[in-house]
């Protein structure tokens, strides 16, 4: 018994050290790009490295997907994506019926016909803890919770006389490691329709659909994804004042850019990582084609 427990503990330590190595490798792979982004500033960086960035802002979206960078950077064969944390599972509402009503309105307005759920969804985990306080669910339970939400959302859309279907994306099909989040950025998109999968080589990032969701929900989502990126499921302690997480604001004009950067700072003002300089707020004006 003792041996077996000791072996299990050893295996766990070995696994953790393996993940730490994998994380460092992934971090190093993105570091040149991030050095340029932080050093040059967002405006110069994107204009130089991604001169055709405007085409990554799409008009028509087909799939509701999570804000998870493994989804936002994934090219979906069903079509372009509209990002909501856990496909709306965390959307602010007094109860599930109201949440389904609000999120179905949003997705219908964006032309969405596919509701995705995905394996290992952090938003679904938070939703589970919101609905069952004090319970720490197993990963399979969280996966089922994410799927159940997506199916209910499909039904809510159908009740409003629109068609929709559910598509599940397994963790291994996502555009990131199964073990951790590799986001170095959060795209706070007030231009609308940003799909990072339209450009190769963009810094890995969560997407907040600022243009289409309420200010409160955008603030909720920004808080959630910053916690994930800066926590143990993300690059965590690898972030520093020299190598910060970058919130990239996309704005349609300079006035909005200035205001949105202030809005982001206000949202993050109590975050200890922000206070420690581990989050940089930057951005640029994007004129949609
Ligand atoms: Zn998710």
Folded structure, characterized:
The mean pLDDT is 95. The strands form 2 sheets. The chain has a 4-stranded parallel beta sheet, covered by helices on one side. A 4-stranded parallel beta sheet has the order 6-5-7-8, sandwiched between helices. The chain has one domain (43-285). Helices cover 45% and strands 13% of the residues. Helix 3 links the parallel strand 1 and strand 2 (81-83). It starts with a helix and ends with a strand. 44% of the residues are buried. With 289 residues, the chain is α/β, with parallel strands linked by helices. It has helices at residues 2-40, 42-49, 69-72, 96-109, 122-131, 139-159, 215-230, 254-268, 272-275, and strands at 63-65, 81-83, 114-118, 165-169, 185-189, 205-208, 245-251, 279-285. The structure holds zinc ion (ZN). Zinc ion is lined by residues 66, 68, 86, 118, 121-123.
Quick recap:
This protein has 289 residues and is an alpha/beta fold.
Residue share in helices? 40-55%
Low-confidence stretches: none
SS-based structural class? alpha/beta
Beta-strand percentage range? 5-15%
Helices and strands, in order, run as: HHEHEHEHHEEEHEHHE
- Largest sheet: number of strands, sense, barrel closure: 4 strands, parallel
Let me know the average pLDDT.
95
Our count of domains comes out at 1
Number of DSSP strand runs: 8
Distance between the termini: 66 Å
Q: Provide a count of the helices.
A: 9
The ligands bound in this entry are: zinc ion
